[in-house]
Amino acid sequence: MTSPDRILPDTPENRELSENVHPAGWVNPEPTECYNLVVIGAGTAGLICAAGAAGLGAKVALIERHLMGGDCLNVGCVPSKGVIRAARALHDARNSSEFGVLGGKDLGFDFGAAMERMRRLRADISHHDSARRFRDELGIDVFIGQGSFSGPATIEVAGQTLRFKKAAVCAGARAAAPPIPGLEEAGYLTNETVFSLTELPTRLAVIGAGPVGCELAQSFARFGSRVSLIELGPHILGREDGDAAEILHDAFVREGIDLQLGVKILGVDSSGNDRVLHLERDGKLLDVRVDAILAGVGRAPNLDGLGLEKAGIKFDGSGVKVSDTLQTSNPNVYAAGDVCSPYKFTHTADAMARILITNALFMGRQKTSALTIPWCTYTDPEIAHVGMYEQDAKERGIGVTTFTVRLSDIDRAVLDGETEGFARVHLRKGTDVILGATIVARHAGEMINEFSLAITNGLGLSAIGKTIHPYPTQAEVVKRLADAYNRTRLTPFVKNLLAGWLKWQRW
């Protein structure tokens, strides 16, 4: 992405996308006298705030300076999952000889066609987030331009002043590159530019082995790039369950990814068409030569130009400061999404926006601390988690009982050839109360929802055990965890008691 009205590469799909999310020649409406809600930022949080409030009868203004749909649609969830799907299709086709599929490693691949498919599908999806839909179908005043507070109850945009009763700051966040000497001069990609590629880099360095770095490293390796994944910490996905990360680590090694873990990047130089990363590990120096560098580390809140000081809104380097009810230091201004949350997920922004509507417009007191937030890293296999990790519970002084079932014990996983992974649940010791769960499986993101539902609604693992699951499915692994728990309830005393009863029945 370069300028607000130009999305690269210049293709029919991207021109369609641009016309939806930042239409050329857009004319801002005349502001109404006062709005119930003015929303700054048309990413996930902003769109949900605006659409939800308007649907409940509020007069709403929505301001976006760049692209409607925000990061998720344009440079995040949507394009990344399109790329991941193409990489998975190629990997499956080349590694399906056991299923009788011929061709294997010799199958061809067209990177340009895969990226064109992603751009086409992104453009199709963008209609839902388009400026015209929000104006014409939802009745929202859509302003294209930089929104900036001019006072505690006014916002200026493109020379116009909008008065509000309540406002929502949903400005999102952007990619932040690490402060590595020479990186800026050498040039690098982020999630905001990598999806504009039309040619596959022969050699690619990915800085950061968090979720974004791991997802894109695996995808480009499967496309055929020689990928070096560089991480300061000793492990990939350092915040995840150690056993889960180890499974993915082994998969990366098998797929030929060069894992440079526990290293410090001393600097980056350019040498002809090469970028050279100078690394240090345990006092030893090594160089990695690549054609392109992708920085997959860190996010910074979009605070520039908002004029927060003029509205008395407190903020710091991590974003806008909000209470548990999403209220800022200005009681008439709230915030939601990546601009104020440590959980920078689209689904979290969605949930926060719904809380914001209730609290800002209807005097609600809903709290973000009550949210149960799952997440998923969309590698292959996927790693999904919700609730506490075992270490979290122990640090809070909570006794934990943990159950694990391997996918290799699940018939459908065996038949699918997808036995790499497990499901794990942490219970409050002596009870069936679910503290947290992790699933490693090809479709773990689809499977974690059962645990999220249970935790949110106070259902114990026994409730899952009572629920009939279709056979054969990989999701049966969740029920197997409940079976494992139920077996622990059959103590020797209870077993002897039942045996005595059954013996008496035979008399």
Summed up, what is this model?
The protein is of the alpha/beta class and 507 residues long. The protein folds into three domains: 12-175 and 300-370, FAD/NAD(P)-binding domain, CATH 3.50.50.60; 183-297, FAD/NAD(P)-binding domain; 381-488, Enolase-like, domain 1.
Q: In words, what does this structure look like?
A:
By secondary structure, the chain is of the alpha/beta class. The chain has 3 domains: 12-175 and 300-370, FAD/NAD(P)-binding domain, CATH 3.50.50; 183-297, FAD/NAD(P)-binding domain (3-Layer(bba) Sandwich); 381-488, Enolase-like, domain 1. The chain has 17 helices and 23 strands. The strands form 6 sheets. Strands 1, 2, 3, 4, 5, 6 and 18 form a 7-stranded mixed β-sheet that branches. Strands 19-20-23-22-21 form a 5-stranded antiparallel β-sheet, with helices on both faces. The longest helix is centred in the N-terminal third of the chain and has 18 residues, at 77-94. The chain is globular, with a radius of gyration of 25 Å. It starts with 11 loop residues before the first helix and ends with a helix. The model has no long low-confidence stretch (mean pLDDT 96).
- Our count of domains comes out at 3
Low-confidence stretches: none
Q: What is the terminal-to-terminal distance?
A: 81 Å
What general form does the structure show? globular
Give me the count of strands: 23
CATH superfamily of the largest domain: FAD/NAD(P)-binding domain
